[in-house]
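Exercise 7. Predict the joint structure of the components listed below.
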Amino acid sequence: MAMHTDHAHDFEHTGEVPKPQTKAIWRTFIILVAITALEFVIAFTMEASTVRNSIFIILTILKAFYIVGEFMHLKHETKSLIWTILLPMALITWLMVALISEGSYYFESVTNYFK
Amino acid sequence: MSTSTTLEKPNTGTWDGGNEPFKASYGKLMMWFFLLSDAFTFGSFLIVYGLSRHKNLPYTGTPEAFTFSQEWWPIPEKVFNAFPGFHGLDLPLAFVALMTMILILSSVTMVLAVEAGHRMDKNDVQKWLLWTILFGSTFLGCQALEWSHFISGTEEGMILSNGTHIFGANLTINQYGPPLFADLFFFITGFHGTHVFSGVILLIIMFINTVNGTYQKRGHYEMVEKVGLYWHFVDLVWVFVFTFFYLI
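Solution:
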């Protein structure tokens, strides 16, 4: 973290702290609030259905993208780090989809096995 | 007698050692890997939720005619419709909306604290950490209210087939639907709440260290950044819990 140390010295000499750069942060915040608000509108205006659930899941992944990408800064990390995190997550998402869609069968066979 | 000594070429590739291939410090990388493993834990919770939900019948009638029954999985809007201080009013998902906003807001103040740390602005770091602690604790308080309402139940309760009148929910009985629904509610939101609680403790430690000038002396605020990663992860988990437990 040499970069930070250098900065620290700069401030010691000048005694000044640079102005905050928060525009991108507030923009992300507004996007997150807007998506959440949209989810509520959908929850109260649409009948429960597979389509509605898919919309919810897509919006959730969109929110996750903004939180991980901007707030956790993953978008600005090196490519190898991005893949190190995303690849295992993609695999577990696959497992989730597989287990939930095959859930009844799986549940049944496990309970039968221990009968 | 001339022997040619071949000098080994210095290793300068990305993965030859001596540098940081991910351009992230050890601590930050380990935080990422910890969060990845934590994501697996929450992932397994959501898998179990999906499985048990499919195991029970969904409610097929109109939302207006909905009643609590152990026959079907309840509609979340009908279970989570209370707001502290507004007794008896039907306010579906209003309280959880407030909690979601509080947690998103705490995530923003956290990222502002990290940003202030990059600028070595001690006062700003303190200010934003305090806001984050405040929002985090408020969220925990809200969750305590939510839990106590869920546990004590509504005035109507539910009459079981054998005639017993039950109110509220615990790990074995549940007036809102199948007992599994209550179990999963306690485990998933409880596990998330524990994470928020640990996060608040970590933030308080960060705040004390910042006030003491530990990080200013160290020359960087990387510790705040690492706790920030954890805090955003907690927010991220809530985004998923919110969708799968309260919306779908």
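Discussion. The two ends of chain B are 83 Å apart (CA to CA).
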